[in-house]
Amino acid sequence: MSVMSLLSPENWQRWRERPYYHTVLLGAVALLTGALISGSDYLTRSAIDQRRLEDLQVTLEQVIPADLHDNTLTKDTVTLRDGEREVIVYQARRAGQVQAVCYQVTASGYGSTTMFIIMGVDRDGKVLGVRVTSHAETPGLGDKIERKRSDWILSFDGRSLGDPPPERWGVKKDGGIFDQFTGATITPRAVVKAVKGGLEFFAANRAQLLSEPSAITQAVQ
Asked: Strand 127-134 relative to strand 77-82: parallel, antiparallel, unpaired?
């Protein structure tokens, strides 16, 4: 039997009348769809990863001044454990010496959402910069934590655990020095707490953070 005869209208109608026709058809569609999705993912994965790397580089450069490093921040990392989580630390080196570090902290936002925050800290434990990279706070209220929405996030620049004193690390409503937002105190309160926690992480791990990668590896084993 030729291929043309198999594809004739009569034979095609007989195939459609068989009980397993729809099962075979659905299987073929599912197989084709899966192949298309896999192929698309394979073709775009490299471009997506490159874009994420570029976005990360831009963010790191916002919290680590260019004059503090001559290395590629995204390629100079170490990992430390902070309680139950692992923290990826980006080291800013100049002439081989670590001048500053950058890492991510998290804060609980409004409605139990999570805010992701990148902060840069110099060798002396002073904040070089803070940026909120992801959040789900209320537009027009809590989103003032974004640099493009207001200058509020810049209020951390130059601060340390001793400036202000620990008891003043809070929003003004709680007796602290940092402004809160009208109608949205939860968000800035959480960010202040997270940044303070990030400075405490630096203080607790300063020796390892400013050491060579080999020393840090030995310290966390």
From this structure: unpaired
